[in-house]
């Protein structure tokens, strides 16, 4: 079973869209997939047409220890694809769990118990893939996802401001690896919202491939209006517009994910192999600069990953 966090501290880069549609594409390839909504905005749950009433099993109640992981998993309209939904109550989880013992590994423990129960009852893993949709921040929820995962897929928008925090993000992954989960690795970078008509987008993609090499998936996820419309119908792109370019992109991305083994190169310690700085291409001063993306600019996020408490 591969447990993968889809991560970026910046919002609007395609994490939730990728979690839902990559999960659906893997399910259509015959895999058993569970997508987990760890974002208090509950966008993944809404995307799949799932609403959680107050008090029902959800990611929030699971992290509080009130219900098990298995109790929260629900089926979707796509065969082989299940969802662990959430609701707005999750927004208070970080505050409520701030003083709880082992707060960084609550999700890992819940997943381990789910896995152990399935192996005991059926003799097989409960799923082939678990995809964790992380919130657009690097707080306790994202740390829980990283501590529970084997791999990290970073979703990157191929625009100027979307790359500003990439180095910081990779530092945080290394920090979690060093303190909580030595086997964690960044096994893929997914270029999202890519428009090959834009010179800057092509330059940013080239820069990513130059510095990160094979970690960058060859398949980019292009800008496609059908991908933006599908959530309003509570459907995956394969239900809403199966012949669209968005469906094609995610189908091919799923095939690339399946072609890669789960054993990937671990993230290097900073003292051993410093992470290369990604040089962000800037528009030429002689040309009219592109219009800035509304809400795109944001400062790098400083994160303090708590030390694990003594047992």
Write the layout of secondary structure elements.
Elements: E1 2-7, H1 15-28, E2 33-37, H2 43-47, H3 59-63, H4 69-72, E3 74-75, E4 81-84, H5 93-96, H6 106-122, E5 129-133, H7 140-148, E6 151-157, H8 166-179, E7 185-192, H9 199-212, H10 225-229, H11 237-240, H12 245-259
Parallel strand pairs: 1-5, 1-6, 2-4, 2-5, 6-7
Antiparallel strand pairs: 3-4
Helix pairs in contact: 1-12, 6-7
Question: How would you describe this structure to a colleague?
Answer:
It is a single chain. The chain contains twelve helices and seven strands. The chain is α/β, with parallel strands linked by helices and 311 residues long. The chain has one domain (2-259): Rossmann fold, CATH 3.40.50.300. The chain has a seven-stranded mixed beta sheet with strand order 3-4-2-5-1-6-7, sandwiched between helices. A hairpin with a 5-residue loop joins strand 3 and strand 4. Helix 1 (15-28) packs across helix 12 and helix 6 runs parallel beside helix 7 (140-148). It starts with a strand and ends in a 52-residue tail after the last helix.
